[in-house]
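Worked problem 6 (solution included).
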Amino acid sequence: MLQRSFDDLGVPLAEVTFCVVDLETTGGSPAQNSITEVGALKVRGGEKVGSFHTLVNPGEAVPAFIRLLTGIDDTMLIEAPPIEAVLPSLVEFLKDSVVVAHNARFDVGFINAALERNCYPPLDNRVVDTARLAAKILSGEVRNNRLETLARHLRCAHKPCHRAFADVLATTDVLHHLIERAAGYGVTTLEDLVALTATRMDGTFSKIRLADGLPRSSGIYRFVGVQGQTLYVGKATDLRSRVRSYFYGDPRRKIRDMLRQTDRIEVEEYPTMLEAEVAEARAIAKEIPPHNRAGKKKPGWYVKVVTRSEGGRGASKVSTARIVKPDGSVYLGPYTSRTARTLIEAFRIALPLHRCSEPSRCHGCAFSEMDRCAGGRSEAQSRVVERIAHSITSDPSVVLDALRTRMDKLARAERYEEAAEVRDRGALLERALFRAIEVAALVRAGRIEIEVGPETVVIDGGVLDDGDENRRAAASAVAQEANVISNWIRRHGDDARLVSVENAWALPVRAGPHERFVSVKAEPRPTPR
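Solution. The predicted structure is:
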């Protein structure tokens, strides 16, 4: 009977060929001890389909305590074949089956050690350990997971007695009882059974059935609650595998809480992961699922840079803002309010940027006496703000180089804590500026066509062109979607080919992230005596 591939939608347990194995040995170390007996039984669908049993000459005397435990002595093994004569038949018998053993690490370890000594490759079979399965399924029912205890508790027809084939029969009975019990948790495939040993048996595993029939293609998935509310949105290259992984014992409490609330799982397929990532970002922004990190955040903060032309009204200004407006200002973000303030402070360290809260009304403040504020209406201050705007949209080197110079000066003066503070702010600003430049360049490039494998993806003005003519994204949504696309291009640019671009699309060259701020380390403060 030909089995379906394990890479299909999951092999039903009734179609799996299990090979239950048990060994007797001269001790507990695969490196130092030898096999004295091998027992194996093939079963499929609860029926026996083949057996393998032989004594093995270990080439050494059997210790007294092993003779007492198993009843196997040296006289029984004189005519037995050595392990090198047994291995070819054993390997052939195990072929194309799932190996089952009680405390499988012991049995598989001895088999692999023997294979290695005789120049065979190790076993590549999938392995099911009945001891570990029982620890999950029978937790609280039995005092231990020894084979004798389980066989007695489950009232198995065969009893173990420390002989290989007798123990194989008992392990087979235990396996069938555990599979029957596992069905109550929704375990119907080999994939589920193998994963069960790492699963938290907290009542949510049975919901793995919600993943039945999900495709193995790329796309996004939603965990949906009883009232139809979206609980979580994610993306995956293999939707079925990713969704099922949530039921395989994720230790995070928030995941278990989400699974308890889940009533159904919905998926949307996309031909490329670029489209899937954009769809995920749009869904999170629109549906605000409570279990997504982005869904819990309050609306973002932006660094807003207002420049004024010659003779213009108002003051040049750098401040924080909650929303992006089409007012000609330059925006950097979104970030948390703390990060936004840190970035503004980094600009102030690099350049003599105003520090008063309202520069248009500044006529001499405490900061101006330290030459750190000239008011937003001064021409000098306007030029500083214009340089900051230019660093966000085109060239970050002026600001970053000034920060690096400041950091080096502090380090030479042995003001290491201050140098470390500038370093950290500089690294944060460098990441923010390069990301902003990448996003701005993508938006300015206009219509772009990219081949991703066999698919052609169209990006127009920084957003994915999905053919929806009625979709009009707000300015902040454009920036966020362009950021998602830009991140994907940065990570997977080698997997895509540029077909056409409407306008110029150029990015600054850099050796690597944080390149200006990795070489200086803060010295520890001396311990006071």
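Discussion: The first helix runs from residue 64 to 70.
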